[in-house]
Write a structure and sequence with these properties.
By secondary structure, this protein is mostly helical. It is built from five helices and two strands; from the N terminus they run H-H-H-H-E-E-H. Helix content is about 65%, strand content about 5%.
């Protein structure tokens, strides 16, 4: 059943992200967090379709495929920020104003700075995690849509 495979793959992708963060200490940036959202949406839709025992999963699989393409777009945007093709959002940068007084200076010292989105934390074969997310999301999107079109509804 393709929907179960999509569910397991999405859970695995999030597990890799969280193990990288909490197990290996890789600090995610804002765009890294945004890239997790489509996987959560896919998990919710998959569980919903399995729990209500839909006879026809085609429409839900096409929706899931579109969510994966959104995920691939987010990952491509992140890759572009990493490669300095374009700048990320304000939340991706560490540009801050100078403190106006000592109290503000003290607060800035005690506040942890968010990780910049253009800093690549980890690579495998010269590719960052955002590139692997582009590949995985694109493949899963195609799989979801094509398997949704091939499945015949049960009566």
């Amino acid at each position: 059943m393709p929907i179960v495979l999509i569910l397991v793959t999405s859970i695995f992708a999030l597990a890799v992200a969280y193990i990288s963060q909490y197990g290996f200490g890789f600090e995610p940036c804002v765009l890294c967090y945004y890239q997790r959202i489509p996987y959560f949406a896919v998990i919710v839709l998959s569980l919903l379709s399995l729990s209500i025992r839909m006879a026809d999963h085609r429409n839900i699989q096409i929706c899931i495929g579109l969510i994966f393409f959104i995920s691939a777009f987010l990952a491509f945007y992140h890759f572009g920020v990493e490669q300095f093709w374009w700048s990320g959002s304000e939340s991706c940068s560490q540009i801050q104003t100078l403190p106006k007084n000592f109290i503000e200076f003290q607060e800035k010292l005690l506040t942890k700075m968010p990780k910049r989105c253009d800093e690549v934390e980890w690579t495998l074969f010269g590719l960052s995690m955002s590139v692997y997310n582009i590949i995985a999301s694109s493949v899963l999107g195609l799989f979801s849509i094509f398997s949704g079109r091939l499945v015949t509804p049960h009566s």
